[in-house]
């Protein structure tokens, strides 16, 4: 059986060569096997100056005999070099109350007749560190996070690298080597118990028991238990001076600090692998292998960049957090899913709904988030609910079909009370409503309960689901044993699941899922913006900073004033291009432009684009699609396994500047984070580069929006592509304000 071969560089005076360690786990050592392994080492690495042999589970005298009996010494002495290859044997030796690793060199004399044995000498610590580094590196113990992901460790630190000791523990030879060196650096005291931070280290502890029994170091085999790293420290029993604790790997030394506070004696605390996260970081206890590169070493990794959760540079770059617990970590390359919109993104009656809303001036975009609404699109449906409006007839039919009789309460939500009475009258319910209490949603709590009463809740524009849930919670105690109908003119939801959750909440009661009624005259899927910062707020902050640095031109100062003073807007949402304000082209893919194209506002375009994005994020599932709680939500968000990005082909194939601008404003930052994938970053670079080159030819109308998005940190490319874009500003074709935007693009 071939030996486990570990190699490191060896320095002695002015000479430098390789030092090789052969590790055996065999029931009987064979001289022929050792000889063949020595031959192979010298064939592959002719600069090897010393070869060491160890069989951790056998007496060292057996290894010495095997080296002498075989051809190892002859092969080593036959090399044609100035330096004689020494074959040495390792052993554990007790001296001054502690264990040490010692080596004894074995060489043939000049006549190759006798073996000359050297004195047993203490093994250099650097050789131990070098061999164990070779072991760790050989089996991929240093895990690099995929692009776009970083690790959140149990210590509270964030980093894009992780030490995984369990990747190394794949054989008894490996465990034997680690156990051999760990025994030598721990205090020479028979442990009462052994605790390990992760379960894979139990194999090392068992190997220590086996070696200690073979060497007659311990009289008993102590029990071994894993405490699951930080998560189990608090559950550890009271620790004593004879408890041995093994930590698999560390970059901060934090777990060792906690264990010492728990009562572990430092001489009985061993960290197998340690890699510094800064020059100031130390770890308590003993370290079997320091993986950190230092100038005088010929091996090692650079120190890991580690950040606190409050000031993590990787979080600021938009990298997704993979939370680690013990030795769990990401084992696959992160997949990239490309989000692409088109006419097929408009599901069911969506196109009809949009065509009925646009060109009416009823759609506006909220530039600043100031209330509980979760979408940044505001739609004034009062015009649509008027007798000539497109929502009037569908809502009138719903009222005629579902209004419970006799109705005691009519609750107007998002509608004037007078408007609610007017709509009810047009549906032929005037006489019935005349005897009902018609109130605003804020007055529900003041109603007196009526047993068996019926209520009608009318909603004009239902986008604040929390508001309607609140009305529902208050109203149920007012209509004890009665029924409620929730009828909406236009209902907004970001996904079929969100829509279904609202429907179940409103309809479910003491008689099951159809106790109450919820219906909508029209529905539209729009994304929830959540807590994300508005792209217009980001633009305003950036322009203010640029103006402080160096006064901006008057038209940009006017832009600052407009952004500061405007809450809702239909136009001027996007930066002007080479030809002025961006407008819709005749062949716009998401809206009908055959008639009255000039009436389509930028807010209309933004709403249609947002709808298409929402549909694609839900894998083209329309509102009203039946979903169950057991059915998984379509994964088009971000996770440690998947990065969803807005496919660059959206910008490459749809060259309409107003559509590009709407996409840049409507997409979230992770969907524009092309820094996580080299191919996507290259494709986006080519799109933006084409706009830069086209600017001097009266083209590139979407360039200001591209540069603004990049300068605000929303659209991100890889560093090399950012540098290549910045180099294009030297051509002199771009105006000064665009050059200033380009200079503000951060490097990711």
Could you list some keywords that capture this structure?
25 helices, Rossmann fold, 7-stranded mixed β-sheet, single chain, 748 residues, 5-stranded parallel β-sheet, elongated
Explain how this protein is built:
Strand 1 and strand 2 form a beta hairpin. This protein has 748 residues and is of the alpha/beta class. Helices cover 34% and strands 21% of the residues. Strands 1, 2, 3, 4, 5, 6 and 7 form a seven-stranded mixed sheet that branches. Strands 13-12-14-15-16 form a five-stranded parallel sheet, sandwiched between helices. Helix 5 packs across helix 6. The protein has four domains: 119 residues, no CATH class; 189 residues, Rossmann fold, CATH 3.40.50; 156 residues, Rossmann fold (3-Layer(aba) Sandwich), CATH 3.40.50; 209 residues, no CATH class.
């Amino acid at each position: 059986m071939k030996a486990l071969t570990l190699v490191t560089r060896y320095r002695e005076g002015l000479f430098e060569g390789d030092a090789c360690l052969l590790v055996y786990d065999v029931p009987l050592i064979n001289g022929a096997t050792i000889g063949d392994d020595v031959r192979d080492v010298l064939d592959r690495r002719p600069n090897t100056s010393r070869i060491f042999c160890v069989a951790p589970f056998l007496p060292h005298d057996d290894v010495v005999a095997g080296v002498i009996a075989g051809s190892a010494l002859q092969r080593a002495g036959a090399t044609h070099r100035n330096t004689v290859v020494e074959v040495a044997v390792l052993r554990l030796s007790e001296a001054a109350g502690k264990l040490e690793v010692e080596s004894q060199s074995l060489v043939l004399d000049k006549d190759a007749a006798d073996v000359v044995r050297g004195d047993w000498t203490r093994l250099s610590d650097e050789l131990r560190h070098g061999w164990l580094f070779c072991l760790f590196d050989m089996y991929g113990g240093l895990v690099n996070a995929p692009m776009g992901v970083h690790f959140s460790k149990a210590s509270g630190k964030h980093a894009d690298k992780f030490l995984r000791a369990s990747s190394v523990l794949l054989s008894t030879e490996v465990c034997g080597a680690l156990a051999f060196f760990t025994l030598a650096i721990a205090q020479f005291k028979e442990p009462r118990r052994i605790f390990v931070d992760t379960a894979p280290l139990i194999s090392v502890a068992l190997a220590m028991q086996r070696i200690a029994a073979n060497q007659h170091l311990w009289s008993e085999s102590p029990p071994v238990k894993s405490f699951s790293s930080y998560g189990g420290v608090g559950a550890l029993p009271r620790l004593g001076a004879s408890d041995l604790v093994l930590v698999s790997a560390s970059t901060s030394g934090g777990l060792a600090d906690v264990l010492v506070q728990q009562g572990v004696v430092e001489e009985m605390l061993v960290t197998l692998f340690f890699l510094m996260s800064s020059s100031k970081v130390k770890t308590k206890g003993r370290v079997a292998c320091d993986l950190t590169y230092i100038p005088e070493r010929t091996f090692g990794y650079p120190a890991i960049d580690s950040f606190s959760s409050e000031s993590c540079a990787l979080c600021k770059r938009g990298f997704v957090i993979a939370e680690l617990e013990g030795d769990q970590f990401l084992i696959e390359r992160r997949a990239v899913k490309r989000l692409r919109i088109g006419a097929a993104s408009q599901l069911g009656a969506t196109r009809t709904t949009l065509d009925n809303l646009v060109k009416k001036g009823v759609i506006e975009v909220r530039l600043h988030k100031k209330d509980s609404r979760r979408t940044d699109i505001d739609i004034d449906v009062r015009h649509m609910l008027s007798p000539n409006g497109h929502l009037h007839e569908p809502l009138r039919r719903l009222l005629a079909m579902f209004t419970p009789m006799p109705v005691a309460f009519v609750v107007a939500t998002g509608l004037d009370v007078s408007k609610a009475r007017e709509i009810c009258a047009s549906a032929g319910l005037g006489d019935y409503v005349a005897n009902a209490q018609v109130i605003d949603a804020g007055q529900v709590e003041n109603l007196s309960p009526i047993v068996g009463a019926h209520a009608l809740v009318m909603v004009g524009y239902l986008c604040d689901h929390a508001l309607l849930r609140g009305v529902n919670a208050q109203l149920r105690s007012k209509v004890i044993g009665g029924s409620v109908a929730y009828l909406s003119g236009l209902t907004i939801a970001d996904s079929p699941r969100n829509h279904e959750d609202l429907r179940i909440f409103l309809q479910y009661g003491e008689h099951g899922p159809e106790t109450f009624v919820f219906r909508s005259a029209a529905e539209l899927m729009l994304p929830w913006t959540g807590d994300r910062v508005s792209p217009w707020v980001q633009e305003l902050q950036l322009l203010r900073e640029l103006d402080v640095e160096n006064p901006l031109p008057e038209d940009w100062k006017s832009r600052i004033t407009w952004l500061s003073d405007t809450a809702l807007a239909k136009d001027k949402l996007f930066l002007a291009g080479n030809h002025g304000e961006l407008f819709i082209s005749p062949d716009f893919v998401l809206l009908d432009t055959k008639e009255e194209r000039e009436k389509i506002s930028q807010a209309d375009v933004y709403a249609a684009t947002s709808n298409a994005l929402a549909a694609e994020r839900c894998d083209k599932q329309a509102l009203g699609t039946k979903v169950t709680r057991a059915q998984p939500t379509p994964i088009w968000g971000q996770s440690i396994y998947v990065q969803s990005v807005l496919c660059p082909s959206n910008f490459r194939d749809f060259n309409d500047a107003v559509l590009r601008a709407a996409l840049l404003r409507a997409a979230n930052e992770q969907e524009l984070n092309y820094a996580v994938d080299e191919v996507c970053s290259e494709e986006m670079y080519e799109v933006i580069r084409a706009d830069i080159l086209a600017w001097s030819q009266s083209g590139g109308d979407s360039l200001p929006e591209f540069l603004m998005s990049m300068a605000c940190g929303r659209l991100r490319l890889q560093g090399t592509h950012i540098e290549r874009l910045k180099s294009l500003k030297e051509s002199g074709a771009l105006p000064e304000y665009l050059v200033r935007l380009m200079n503000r693009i951060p490097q990711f």
